[in-house]
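PROTEIN–LIGAND DATA SHEET

This sheet pairs a single protein chain with one bound small molecule, NAP, given as SMILES. Inputs appear in the order they were entered. The predicted three-dimensional arrangement of chain and ligand is reported afterwards as a token string under its own label.
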Amino acid sequence: MKKIALVTGGSRGLGKDMAQAIAAKGLDVVVTWQSGEQAAGEVVSKLEQAGTVAAAIQLDLLKFDSLDDFAPRLQRLLDDKFGGRKLDFLVNNAGMGATIPMAQATAAQFDDFMNVHFKGVYFLTQKLLPLMNDGGGIVNISTGTTRFCLPGYSIYASMKGAIEVLTRYIAKEFGRRGIRANVVAPGPIETDFNGAAIRSNPQLKERLSGMTSLGRVGQADDIGSVVAFLCSDESKWVNGQRIEVSGGINI
Ligand SMILES: NC(=O)c1ccc[n+]([C@@H]2O[C@H](COP(=O)([O-])OP(=O)(O)OC[C@H]3O[C@@H](n4cnc5c(N)ncnc54)[C@H](OP(=O)(O)O)[C@@H]3O)[C@@H](O)[C@H]2O)c1
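PREDICTION REPORTED AS:
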């Protein structure tokens, strides 16, 4: 039976590429969107044209209370469109960025980043684990900035650091179900992330390229194939690991 992966934030950017790469490995795919329903629909149509069973569902991690409703809505979607099959892989990718110097950070900004990048990931994963088959996996998307520091990323990177610890706990607590948990930590990638900061700022792009051993910033398709690998049996003995995918930034 074909396996199913759920990619949060699969409507664009890295998540869209992950969904495509996972589908290319022969899995069926559910993507989530926050505001981009049309973009998510286009991702689904493209996957369906290639023979994947695919669907999109809304998820807003800023609204923590809405998570209670998400698992039952997903269950209905799995019943209606996927013949009642369970999930095999969960890719916690959705997220936003902002450059916030610590001296100016507010408690409201801290709470938003905590909800989207840590508390939301923690409880979404908790609520979806009962909808998952044994033998699958969780992939949490972190960032290179948990290893090296960029000014303005103190809140964001701290939350991502928390999911790196969480990932090892998931690997420990759910290993007996054959569920693996790993982190993929991208370096700077030219997406809409953080107000399309890299795409819209040539000086920043040049600076980040210069910090990277391979001499450029990343593109979305540098990441999806690594996530797809972690959603396959090719990585069946990889568990509790952080894999940085950054072209060798700050090494
Ligand atoms: N790009 C980078 O340089 C970079 C580097 C390291 C790590 N990352 C991480 O990679 C992940 C994806 O980033 P990206 O570059 O693909 O960003 P992106 O192009 O801005 O896409 C963000 C995705 O997350 C969804 N999303 C945003 N806020 C959400 C919320 N509150 N609740 C649920 N979904 C939400 C968006 O949905 P809509 O389309 O509906 O708005 C979209 O699908 C993030 O976790 C980010 O921290 C990115």
